[in-house]
Design the sequence.
């Protein structure tokens, strides 16, 4: 199971895991390094 | 991330949402998004990008990154995310994953899109598009 966490998107909107997964029949989550 | 934009039609049809997570602050995420959008509009202007296919999230304290076991703690810039991709169903169950060996090692864009759309349709991903653990 995907862990729980409370994040914000780049516009400051709250995103709660795993509740966000209920918004779609499937969700791709990709982790990326950023500018490094 | 460009790969997600280029596969926009597949993801839209499959009603798949895409979330990108990094330790980057919002301003850097916005710059990244603008760069990808500009590249896409120059390279493939037929892709309307409405709705925008990717939502970027800020995990400044690496809370989720650590919880998923994808933290690269030894990087010179501090803790950053190792490049890992998951496909998750509405119950929060991970159905497909690709653990990259390096930042350059990413799943095939088509393979990932097909796997995600199959899962969205309640089917198993095709055997010829396996994940990588």
Sequence:
């Amino acid at each position: 199971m995907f862990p729980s966490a409370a994040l914000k998107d780049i516009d400051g909107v709250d995103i709660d895991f795993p509740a966000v997964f209920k918004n779609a029949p499937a969700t791709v989550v990709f982790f990326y390094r950023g500018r490094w | 991330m460009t790969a997600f934009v280029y596969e926009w039609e597949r993801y839209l049809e499959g009603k798949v949402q895409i979330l990108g997570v990094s330790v980057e602050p919002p301003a850097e995420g916005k710059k990244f998004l603008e760069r990808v959008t500009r590249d896409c509009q120059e390279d493939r202007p037929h892709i309307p990008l409405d709705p925008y296919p990717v939502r970027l999230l800020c995990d400044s304290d690496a809370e989720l990154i650590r919880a998923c076991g994808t933290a690269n703690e030894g990087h010179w810039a501090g803790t950053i995310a190792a490049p890992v991709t998951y496909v998750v169903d509405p119950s929060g169950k991970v159905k497909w994953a690709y653990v990259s060996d390096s930042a350059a090692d990413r799943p095939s864009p088509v393979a990932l899109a097909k796997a995600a759309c199959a899962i969205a349709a309640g089917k198993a991903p095709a055997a010829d598009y396996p994940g990588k653990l």
Notes: Chain A touches chain B at residues 1-12, 15, 17-18, 20-36 (CB under 8 Å). Chain A has no helices and three strands. Residues 7 and 13 of chain A are 8 Å apart (CA to CA). The mean pLDDT of chain A is 93.
